[in-house]
Amino acid sequence: MLSWRLITVPLKILLAIIVLYVVWVLFAFRDIPISELEKKYGGNNLQRFDIDGVSLAYKVEGQGPAIVLIHSHYWTMRFWQPWVDVLKENYTVIRYDLTSHGLTGPDPTEDYSRKRASVLLEGLMDHIGVDKFSLVGSSTGGAIAFYYTATRPEQVRDLVMINTPGMPRLTNKYMERGLPSWGGYIFYLLPQEIFRGFLQAPVVDKDLITDEVLTEFHEMYRGSGNRMAEFHRMRGWEKTDPAPLLKNITVPTMVMWGEDNPQLPVESVDLFEERLINAERVEKVIYPDVGHIVPFEIPGQSLADVETFIAANLEGAQ
Question: What is the Cα–Cα distance from 269 to 164, expressed in whole angstroms?
């Protein structure tokens, strides 16, 4: 019969290892001050606009008709750089970091709904002095874009939704029950390498997730307050059918999708079209061998399609 000592000693060693690991992770992957991230990733032309307790980080580049770009969940406005480099030659390009992301950081209200995001975006547009623009959103950014367009139709010239959530579908039962209040602290215990698989999962070409991409993603995620803010965003995830909103959209609308999107089925494209019953027209673009992050996976091809769409709408409006 094993002695109690033979059992407790290994358990104590295991507990010590766990404690040491937690201490090491909390130190090695502690929060990074937003000011430090701004120096590393802010680049040129970074501006800030303070609104209702939020310091929105944004950029305005180029001249011409305005285009607003809203990035995907977990990413930042740097996500759009390949597009911006081209668009700024003919357009005024406006992009910003959503709350709980990048250089903007948390919202003190802990409200990460589409409604709240639209209030902040409207304030930013008023601040910049732009009253009419094309609105492009990827993933979560697309959901904010369609909410904004439906509730502020006079401001949006045309709408582009890329791999946008919102359609009724089977959901994770755990998410339906809601996340536990303590769940956010787990985000502080995840080392950088764990995020490689997380980033690779939604894209087809796994080689796109380089060490440089991984490091930037993880460091932005560690921005002061971002991790807990992301947890609050996840707890407030919106699952209602957007049909009542979508029927209010009257502008030309493009729905772009990656055919191999592992998160949102390609059938969502037709579901969106069925609900956009009052849009001037709906264009659908489905890319084979592309996943969830279309502007990141095929920046050149996706940009060309968006440019053609927006240019046609501008010509038709003259």
Answer: 9
CA 146 – CA 135 distance, rounded (Å): 9
pLDDT tens digit string along 75-129? 999 999 999 999 999 999 999 999 999 999 999 999 999 999 999 999 999 999 9
The region that residue 124 occupies, defined by phi over 0 for left and psi between -120 and 50 for alpha, beta otherwise, is alpha
Helices (H), the chain: 4-28, 34-41, 81-87, 114-128, 140-151, 173-177, 194-200, 211-221, 226-235, 243-246, 268-275, 294-297, 299-317
Distance CA 82, CA 80 (A): 6
* Integer Cα distance of 102 and 98 in angstroms: 8
pLDDT at 259 over 70: yes
Verdict on whether the full-model pTM lies above 0.70: yes
Here the tokens at position 191 are 């080392």
3-class DSSP state of 99: coil
CA 255, 258, 261: angle at the middle one, nearest 5? 120
Fold of 34-317: Rossmann fold (3.40.50)
Domain ranges, ordered by start, for the chain: 1-30, 34-317
Contact 135, 145 (CB under 8 A): yes
Q: How far apart are CA 216 and CA 197, in angstroms?
A: 15
pLDDT at 4: 55
Give residue 189's pLDDT: 73
In the numeric block, which tokens belong to residue 99? 């709350």
CB 162 within 8 A of CB 294: yes
